[in-house]
Give the backbone structure.
Amino acid sequence: MLMQETPSPRTSWVRGVLVVLVLAVLSAMVAVELRQQHLLGERQAQRSAVIDGLAKSLIEQTMQSEVLGAVSVMGLTSHLLKQAVLGQLGRDAPAVLALLGAARDRFGAQGVYLINTDGTIVAHATAGPSSTGQNVGFRPYFHQALAGRSNVYAAVGAFSHERGLYVAAPLHAGSSSPSPVLGVVMVKLPFAQVDALLARAGMPALLLSPQGVAIASTRTEWLYAMTPPLEQRRIDGIKALRQFGRQFDNGVASALPFDATQPEVLIDGAPHALEQRSIDWHDPAGAWSLVLLDDVSALMPWAQRTGLGGAVGVLVLLLGLLVLELLRNRQRMAATQQRLQVLGAALQSSPMAVVVTNAQGIIEWVNPGFEATTGYGLNEVRGAKPGLLASGKTGVETYNAMWSHLVSGRAWKGVFINRRKDGTEYHAESTLTPVLSSHGVRIGMVGLHQDVSARMQEQQELQRSERRLRELLEQQKAIFDNAPPVLLTADGVMRMFNPAFAALVGGTAQQLHDERVSCLFASLEEHAAFAARVAPRLVAGEQVREDWTLRRLDGSPFEARISASAVHIEGASLAAMWVIEDVTEVHRAEVATQQARERLELAQEAGKIGVFDVNLRTGRSVWISKQAGHQGLRERVFDDWRTAWAQRLDARDCSTALARMDAALQGSDTSLRDTWRLVRPDGTVRWFECSARILRNAQGQAERMVGVNVDIDAYKQLEARVAAQLQFQQVLIDTISIPIVYKDAQGRYLGFNRAYETTFGIRREDYLGKTVLDRDFIEPDQRQLFQDDVQLALQGPEAVHREVDLPYADGVVHRTLYWLQRFGEPGSEMEGVIGTFVDISDRQRIEQDLRRAKELAEEAATLKSNFLANMSHEIRTVVSG
């Protein structure tokens, strides 16, 4: 290949050495010995460079890797993962798996795990068998991450029995590391990258755990072997770690054939030099060790180191080596020039922008790709600094990180926001590499720059689209899951439903999915009757609203109010969305209301009204009430009236009720009226209404308070049910698609539905309690007409209806059909009117078109009659003439 030396120079070198050896055997042997000593030193330097490079690469692929950075960022910023680890989303939630799966695909991981504080895996994104539900709390990486430290850990999977790199980071409650740790995010990487890294050494290499076990080795027979000495206590300790799968389950282990603490060891009878570097993965057991073994037997053969005629031999050997070195240098120079030519051609033709600077960062050379990207030529930038491309929008932290790497002699990769010669900005993905001398001094820098503006824009657009899609899906799912009972059917089969529907019919998702709708009816005949009633209306596109008796899966009946609309589902001849409401309780509430009213009358008749008399000067109070199980009235006397009240008032009302009572007594009021909850002697809590009179002396001080407590618990329950029914009615009205408004007898707005607000572009809170005269976007005479219609509708049973022109929210005046109908009893507080609006603009246009067509047809008929009459007259004239 072009970048490799050809075999012919090496062959010439061997022949020259053979000539020198032939000329001076004794001198050559001494020279070989000296040469080999020199090679030992060079080999040691090469070995150190190799192991340093391996250690650096291993750290860059683990503790300094993009994977650990990404996992740490997820642990700080992902609100979704925090919800999942707190148990708010359930195990293996789809949104969580999608996020973890994206990380797994991005880094080529075997799996991405989400672990709670108990060590239980709550989500596992993997292409293989899932480990969700299993516990990894024994792993050191879990404890380190739970303590707030990101770490890397190598181990044999407890369930997969394969080696893997476990990159773990804490999942914080907040967006900063000092916040509490809620769990752990862990990525399992394939161990093949470590094996591939060791294979690059070109010599035996091992990765030893802090306990001295080889987790990776270029020689397979050394895998899972231990450094000596082998002690049973030590083997049992390693077995208890469960770090190496089942390798030590039988209590025995194999030993490595060398002592890793020695600089030189003997393996298979050959001397090997040993180099070792520590790898800090934040393992609580200590640092890992990277070991490199170099077979130096070939470099240091035993030979005769002394001999006769040493001086002659040395001179001959030196002269021979000098000649050979001269020839070798010429070959090296030729090879170097060839490599430089190839390298120069590659840089010239590279599509990436290449910048070469000196140690001070002054540009010395750029390639044509730089000119194509920035618009600057070599002559324009030579002698300048790369800062001439700066736009001022790159963060200071980016430059700090760049110089931190370059000053320490490490390569840096990042993104700048630069400005071209024509002033346009672009994102440049840059890799800056310092060029070091043999002494480690920076003599220059090489930068590779690539315009990634389009790619970053595409990534940002993709991320925005994904966020919008995720938000829409979450919103739709939240609305569907929290809606009233909803059922989607297709051809008589349940396709989809929400939790409220499953709870309504008493079934589970497994029981109801793909079940026939007929199971909700008492019989197939009843279902057929229902279908015959509603199916034609659904096919015609009408909305269906029916009251029907349905049955739960356990066979119990309930009264249902059913609303439905037809929907389109591919492959289904008839599909509909059903909203089913259990109105059994409404009926029961009506019965209960009547019963409560009767019980209240009986209670009043039986004397269940408690009477109290409080002497405010002495604090003595008397309670007279009718107690269950006792005949007649019962009187109780308390020396401290306030303590007696505090003991009987429910804890939820005690402080506020006593405060209002104190305010009434300390003021000038002569009466007190309040409602609160009292604890009865049997422990039950009931609502009571208190009505009392406050008697004051001449100075206005309260001296006595006399009143009654009336049991209104039934009314309170009824009030709650009525409030729920009113809320349901408002939701029901809001689902109607035509605008609806209702007013009181004075024409004041009582409420609207959502369609009314949308059609006219108003908000109900802006007009409640006002009249149509306050709507400034309607003409004054039209406003007065609408206000007069209220009284007109209240005067008779017939509805008021008109066709009027109204401005809608779209800014267009629409022809509208307007009805106004009275409700409530005349003169009662509930008397009012309800109005509806129907847009008939399209119908009016059609009528006008028909009227115009009729007029044209009549004109054509008239013209035809006149023409025929004239022709008849002309013909008669010609014939008679």
The first helix runs from residue 7 to 23. The chain has 24 helices and 31 strands.
